[in-house]
């Protein structure tokens, strides 16, 4: 059932969306700052425009008292968040030649894919990514010293100023990105650094901290030199394209609402195989092979806050009758804030 069938969408809304879709080539041709896909003609790609159309549709439906669409609005916002993250990751890749790492390597604290995604796009301290970052869990190798002048004549040390000058521009709009410290989400962060940030999904619930947050968006970068996704072969998961442990530390924290509730992907019942079943591309039969085998995958826990259930929202396959697959997008530098405002602020 599509969006129009699910609700009694007013004809004015349908006409508006059709007019906007038809006008998009004109806008793209006239406005050099418009969204541009990798298509040769430089027009807005249909899959990207569908997200924009959902945004307009959502806001128009909100004005109609006959349409109660809270969860659908959250799902639309979540798909929009994944699209904006994809845009930010493309900027990062264009700058550094690769996507940010997701593996949880040796560190002071555990520091997996969800934390590394936030650091790459916003900076460890939300002040922008430092080009010399080694993705340390405490960020101390490059973060600006905490220094607040509290009397006349005091200034910021020169090393702080130089540090901030070296930062990349944030790849996402901070004002419109649901980013939180782990301690805001979980009462017990385990081996993680509670001060570190993660980008959360749109399904916000009250937490122990008194703040309403979603669940961390899990980020896995593909090992594109590996050839399959099969935990049952002789090498186990060591030669998989997507490496389960990259975000295992967050899964083992359980539900943020009730830590006694285990995450389905970390309940000790065939966790590796459950992860594979979530990401395998059923169109390929010769070997077990995942979606998006040369880029990355993003996983939202969905409305129930549990990873590995049917309501998960991802960037790689159809769920809930809505395609969440994203495309590579090339955007003019400096447009990220504008796009993030448009997509995320629902």
Overview of the molecule:
The chain has 10 helices and 11 strands. It has helices spanning 3-6, 11-30, 46-62, 70-96, 113-122, 158-166, 182-185, 248-251, 271-279, 336-344; strands at 36-37, 179-181, 197-199, 205-206, 212-213, 218-221, 296-300, 313-314, 318-319, 322-323, 329-330. Strand 9 (318-319) and strand 10 (322-323) form a beta hairpin. Helix 3 packs antiparallel against helix 4. It is globular and about 70 Å long.
Oligomer status: single chain
Which percent range fits the helix content?
A: 25-40%
Contiguous low-pLDDT stretches (5 residues minimum) are: 1-17, 19-50, 64-68, 319-346
What characterizes the major β-sheet? 3 strands, antiparallel
> What is the CA–CA distance across the termini?
23 Å
Binned strand content: 5-15%
**CA-based gyration radius:** 21 Å
**Number of separate strands:** 11
| Helix and strand run | HHEHHHHEHEEEEHHEEEEEH
Strands across the major sheet, in which order?
6-7-8
The chain-level structural class is alpha+beta
Keywords:
alpha+beta, three-stranded antiparallel sheet, two-stranded antiparallel sheet, 33% helix, 8% strand, disordered N terminus, disordered C terminus
